[in-house]
Design a protein that fits this description.
elongated, OB fold (Dihydrolipoamide Acetyltransferase, E2P), 3 helices, Gp138_N, Phage protein Gp138 N-terminal domain-containing protein, Vgr_OB-fold_dom_sf, alpha+beta
Length: 214
């Protein structure tokens, strides 16, 4: 009995063709950064799932180049951070060719007939493997931090916690009291109750107690 003839029905042939086509239909794959271009906000990526060959072995997918990166942005605001080699995330693959839109920033007819192709990847950083999970995860609110937790801004109900040195440019207006366990200094002047700390004068300074500053 020839099993090949029995199995080679139109239905099985169609199923086989569908399976073959699915092998070239890309949706999303984990990836890590090889290099980052901050001017274009693109990365070169190494896909972290290998192609499976007929003999069961694996082969690396070629590196993906000039992949646009997703940074939170909108309404005239953006959150940015530098990406480094080995940073993990997920590469998603567009349904159609994105070249025209990416180069011109406007609606575009696809410049190629390819579908779900590796050439049309976009990268969302942050999704990671277990070995690269964030240690000491802050569970009480929102945290913007270094991965080691040494510097952070954390927001939780009723309070904001900041750890690290702060360099501020601009005026500061505060309602409420201020206390410090360290030194408060100024390169110019400090005014308290409308009186200059640097230029105030005391009356009655000819020995004994002076008057109040003015």
């Amino acid at each position: 009995m020839n099993y090949a003839q029995i199995l080679a029905t139109p239905e099985t042939a169609t199923d086989h063709q569908i399976q073959q086509n699915q092998l070239n239909l890309h949706t999303a794959l984990p990836a890590k950064v090889v290099s980052f271009d901050p001017a274009k906000q693109t990365v070169s990526l190494a896909i972290q799932i290998k192609m499976q060959l007929v003999d069961g072995s694996g082969a690396d997918i070629p590196p993906l180049l000039d992949v646009p990166v997703s940074f939170p942005r909108g309404g005239g605001f953006a959150v940015t951070f530098p990406l480094k080699a080995d940073d993990e995330g997920i590469a998603i693959f567009s349904e159609r060719c994105i070249d025209g839109w990416w180069q011109n920033g406007s609606a575009s007819t696809p410049l190629d007939f390819r579908l779900h192709d590796l050439s049309d990847a976009m990268f969302i950083p942050g999704i990671c493997s277990v070995p690269k999970a964030i240690s000491g995860f802050f569970t009480e609110g929102l945290s913007m931090q270094t991965l080691d937790g040494g510097t952070y801004i954390r927001v939780k109900n009723g309070s904001i916690l900041i750890k690290g040195n702060i360099e501020h440019q601009g005026d500061t207006s505060q309602k409420g009291s201020h206390s410090s366990t360290g030194v408060i200094s100024s390169d110019t002047d400090v005014t308290a109750g409308g009186i200059s700390g640097k230029y105030h004068k005391h009356t009655g300074d000819s020995g004994g107690k002076t008057g109040v500053p003015e």
